[in-house]
Amino acid sequence: MKNHQEVCIYCGHTKLYKVSSSQYRCISCKRTYSYDKYAQGIAILNAFVENKSAHECALQLHLNYLTIKKVYQKLRLLLIKYSEELYTNQQETFSQYDEYYYLPTSKRGKPKYLFDAIGILGMMYGKSIHTLLLPDQFAHLKNLEDTSIEKETYARYLNQHKVAHYKSFDNALIDFWHFLETWLEHFKGIKKENFIYYLKEAEFKFNYTKEEQRLILETLWKKNFFM
Known about the structure:
With 227 residues, this protein is α+β, with helices and mostly antiparallel strands. The protein has one domain (35-224). Helices cover 45% and strands 15% of the residues. The protein has seven helices and seven strands; from the N terminus they run E-E-E-H-H-H-E-E-E-H-E-H-H-H. It has a four-stranded antiparallel sheet. A three-stranded antiparallel sheet has the order 1-2-3. Strand 1 and strand 2 form a beta hairpin. Helix 3 packs across helix 6. The longest helix is centred in the middle third of the chain and has 26 residues, at 65-90. The chain is elongated. The relative contact order is 0.13.
């Protein structure tokens, strides 16, 4: 078996030559890259797949926290793009859907926080999930003076009139809502404007095994960012 420095990471060709002490160039695809940088990128991808925070990853790999944070953000942007491409190809095959409102555990059951809920539309194709953020339906109601009665009344209205279509109640959408709530708990608060990045990460991690995640992320990383 050839070691990693005898095979091109892009095309798998075996004819490479050194262009510097740390860089190689492939004779076939003409790509130049650093194995050290590649190995570092793979280590960060693995930490991301294993749900390590940027802080944990930085400590584990002895790297700068801001560097890891930027890489994590790039990965989440890639996942949004990847999800949208899948949606384009699958939008005719969605069989079930459900409207869901997310609130952190610390805010649930407290009327004053009802209008902080984030609306999500979940759709199912095969056993996979695709999510869309819903427009903020509460924006015009957030300044209500009677925060308990009015908010509870509106919450009941939403629950009674939400969009949903299930073929059965034993399905991946129900499982995903539970997964999303549990998975988000390991973050110490998420700003509403950043929620989409974590939602798409959760969607990705629900749909694929860890090994599938690694393969997909490595392909996306090499295609879009790694040089």
